[in-house]
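Quick illustration, no need to memorize.
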Amino acid sequence: MIKIIAACGAGVNSSHQIKDALEKEMKKRGYDVHCDAVMIKDLNEGLLDGYDIYAEIAKTDMSFTPKIPVVDAGAILYRMPAMAKPVYDKVEAIIKKEGLK
């Protein structure tokens, strides 16, 4: 299973929209993906160690540099297929490049 994490201010709106969209689209593409939605304040290096990809909603100044691939997933929130497709393609490219299963 491929593990993705998304984080937003409260961990209940934007991150959940991205979670649902990524799980649905990646399933259509044949990948077993699980995405968690959390509050941005809870994001730390230790938490990210348990994930394969970080789907960020906005550039956030963190006190560390993530060791896992980061995808700018904010465009998914516009709910426009033309804007979301490049995000899904980037996630798929990372999955293939990293050999994730």
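The longest helix spans residues 81-98.
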